[in-house]
Amino acid sequence: MKISAIIAAKHEAPTIRQVAEQTSKYVSECIVVTPPDDFETQAALYGVDCKVMTEGKPGKGKAIVAGARAARYEVLLFIDADLSHNPHDIPRLTLPITNGDCDHVVASRMLGGSSELFDTVPNFIKLIGSHVITTAINKKFASKLTDSQNGFRAIKRELFLDFKLHESHSTIEQEMTARTLASGHRMIEVPSHEFARIYGKSKIKIISDGFRHVVLLLKLLTWRRQKLYSSEEIAALQKRYTEVWYDKA
């Protein structure tokens, strides 16, 4: 299976070039999606081996859906544009899918650690919110995830497009997670460290985005769960690929 990387970038000119260059080493194509008027981010990618496209509708969710539709290959890899995610973890993140063992893999900050979630009060609030949402999702869908919110993840392109995701903002990761679990597909995590943002500020707003996450959580808790694989099968996959990560770390 070949991999298409999708990077949603809004006002990330200082970091996007490095992210795109490093990501391109591990994928078959790299697509960066920016707002039409973000000329600085677009200019920063001059000469980089990636496709730059624009999305006029606001929100991270709209950007990555547009990138996914434009992608040519079977596996989608999503990574943030601010250097908080480690591109060197891409092979470990995509391996369970390219091996044919999984449908959706999330890079877990709870397993790999985070240099960002504990550095400020707002980030600590985001951490608590993430734990609450992940616990509710686990309870609803009988899963054992530690991080349902991280944007660093890989998923089969066909599955992603079949979901017809509606969320426009960072809530799309929560929706993607819940859709995968509700439809009974195989989803696991691999450890990955999250680094602190080195430029600018996070675009996540505690109050407005927090409200969106709560509204979505209440909605997804009404979804029915299909059971295509047993909990034992998923646990065995999780154990296998966690051991692979630590063996190669």
What is the strand and helix layout of this fold?
Blueprint: E1 3-8, H1 13-24, E2 29-34, H2 39-44, E3 51-54, H3 60-70, E4 75-78, H4 90-98, E5 104-108, H5 109-112, H6 121-141, E6 153-156, H7 157-163, H8 172-182, E7 187-191, H9 206-220, H10 231-248
Parallel strand pairs: 1-2, 1-4, 2-3, 5-7
Antiparallel strand pairs: 4-6, 5-6
Helix pairs in contact: 6-9, 8-9
Write a concise keyword list for the protein shown above.
249 residues, alpha/beta, Spore Coat Polysaccharide Biosynthesis Protein SpsA, Chain A, 10 helices, 46% helix
- Determine the CATH superfamily: Spore Coat Polysaccharide Biosynthesis Protein SpsA, Chain A
Measured as a percent range, the helix fraction is: 40-55%
Detail the poorly predicted runs. none
In CATH, the topology is named: Spore Coat Polysaccharide Biosynthesis Protein SpsA, Chain A
> How many separate structural domains?
1
Largest sheet: 7 strands, mixed
Distance linking N and C termini: 24 Å
Give the CATH architecture.
Alpha-Beta Complex
Strand content is: 5-15%
Quaternary organization: single chain
Q: Can you count the helices? A: 10
Question: What is the CA-atom radius of gyration, in angstroms?
Answer: 17 Å
